[in-house]
Amino acid sequence: MDRMPEDIPHPSLDEIRIERVLHALADPIRLHLVRELARLDTGVACGSIDLPITKSTRTHHLRTLREAGVVTIHPAGTSRITTLRRADLDTLYPGLLDGILNAPH
Amino acid sequence: MDRMPEDIPHPSLDEIRIERVLHALADPIRLHLVRELARLDTGVACGSIDLPITKSTRTHHLRTLREAGVVTIHPAGTSRITTLRRADLDTLYPGLLDGILNAPH
Question: Where does the source fall among the domains of life (chains A, B) (predicted)?
Answer without folding.
Answer: Bacteria
